[in-house]
Known about the structure:
The protein is an all-alpha fold. It has 16 helices and no strands.
Amino acid sequence: MSKESQGGRSTGSSWGPVILFFGANMLFGAGLFAHAFLYNFYLDRLGLGEAVMGAAAAALTAGGLVALLPAGAIVDRLGAGRAYLIAGLLSVLGQVTGAFLTTPLPIYAAAFVGGAGVSMWRVAAGPILMRLASGAMRSRVFSWNVALLLASGAVWIAVSGQVPGWIESRFGLGGVAGIRWAFVLGAGGTLLGTAVFLLVERGLGSRNDDPRDHVEKANARAAVVGALRIPRQLMILAALVALWMTAGGLVIQFYNLYFLRVHELDVGQIALVLAASQAFAAFLILGSGEMAARFGTRRMLEIWMLMFGPLLFVLSGVHGLGLAIVVFLALGLVPPATNPLIDQLLLERAPANRQGAVSSWRNGATDLSGFVGAALGGYLLETTSFPVLFRVAGGLALVGAFALLLGLRRTRTPASD
């Protein structure tokens, strides 16, 4: 089976719809990046501790976990386009309501709704890219999509870090008001991205209108659980992906607090550090996609995964700000570089009418790891210290990397590389 035929019928690749999809995704990410960067600072200003921060992040991923079941079914039965549009509405609802809540339980509820939207967005994105690109272009497009999200995310983080101070100085609004309006502005970007995607959906509808699609959808009336059944080897790999990603889930939510409390940077300075990390990652991941297209997806995955654990151990012993930023920049490369490679490896092995199901399982691994990692990471940070948190995450990263790479070797197919 050729790569062009995997994951369904090849439609021939055209850059117009791909570029439009990239634009929609970059706008969609505005609210997500603003929320992810600022929310710990918002909770901190409300006087809520690290355990609440971890629980809020866990609620976000719990919403994603619950949404995975219907998301995969919606993609396979109604189309990835509709799933994308639903994702936009849920994300905006969670972001806007979460910006005006001040007590834990309502905060968790808003995070749950927003998490459902983010999860559905991720589930829809992979199958959309599979239809928009084929052959060697596919490896590039999967990685370029992530690279562009990171590059635009660097802008959204940098801007969102400056907005609270600007609002406070311009309008005399203190406390959490500046952060709240930064959330609202970010949600506006997500809503705009959802609107732009309507154009992509229109192109997908005409481009992929094949009579066999109607037969496949007509035969997909089984129960939802049955619709999400996938080959056992892919289920095992999804479980190993969850183990690997839990290491990142332990620490990703708390990098902003690390620079605030350990290195005493202010919110605007931290925004620039995180934005620099995103921009740096975006640039190098473009090269990663090209290398994967030339030398093999799994080979590039091995290189990236084996970096993460050692780098976390180094960060646990760093004292100077300059070295901490260098190590942080290197750490920031790994999750966005590995995610598209994992997506591609799993989706290329999936039947066309099960790509939504496989995407749900793969994103379920992400959300499960985020749920466990955020809750456990918040507890560890509140009861121990940043060095302990980084060492625990580093050890788990090494275990998860070796386990997943071994699983990929044992289930290797001609579609893997």
